């Protein structure tokens, strides 16, 4: 059984078709990335998973339970860390987490609440009012809130937006541990390095459609090019090498050229061509494609 099964979801807001026939499954224990530019439809899809927004057609099951027909059971299987910081300012951190536990019918949940707070470095804020917390601390509480009922499936909607390095590390350590213990994780983030480091599989949305769905490794191999970044003396690049200039080349003004490389042997060919014209290479870097390159290529593609 899949942890999340998304089948033919459509959603419109008036004339805006925000999700178009979106279908994919996330298997149990996966660390799955849901990526896309602003407005692609990620939050809408997550809101439908959480039962906060109704799809116009299609269905979603969480651990086999339909998010509409079996709302209560499906919701118990899911922990969502929302993007927006919304809290009742009158409660302390512990009260907020107790309230959330009560919402799921859990009494005497303090041992687990203490463990979550300790793992998120929130223990010394347990009795502080929500309104007195910094933005980063509030985000920790959002994560804690999503975990109070130990959901098998955890969805994080941009959990590291605007948080400092220390919290990022704390958060990833904890999320990584939960994933190793068997929790399924779905992550949306605009920090593609985080997605590349953590996600074993990725879906990319563009204008409400799934435009890529594959393992992270396969995505890295499938689309992007390796690059040779050259800083030359003040002469122009020879015409023979200009066809290799990457479309992502940005810097001839600083005498830096980004060339596409399909094989290591291309490097020697390029260098010997430069030698032929006595062009001096001041600096040279080899860069393998990363998820950002893949993302930009997929989002740029005229095919989508
Ligand atoms: N309640 C709403 N009413 C009208 N339009 C909406 C509503 N919620 C979302 N939209 C629109 O639907 C589209 C998808 O928005 P959504 O928030 O799902 O995108 P996203 O991929 O999460 O973006 P971001 O990366 O900026 O969070 C956008 O064009 C957005 O303006």
TrEMBL record:
It comes from the Bacteria. PROSITE patterns: ABC_TRANSPORTER_1, ABC_TRANSPORTER_2. InterPro entries: AAA+_ATPase, ABC_transporter-like_ATP-bd, ABC_transporter-like_CS, ABC_transporter_ATP-binding, P-loop_NTPase. Residues 4-232 form the ABC transporter domain. One of its GO terms (molecular function) is ATP binding. Keywords: ATP-binding, Cell membrane, Membrane, Nucleotide-binding, Transport. PANTHER family: ABC TRANSPORTER ATP-BINDING PROTEIN. This is ABC transporter ATP-binding protein.
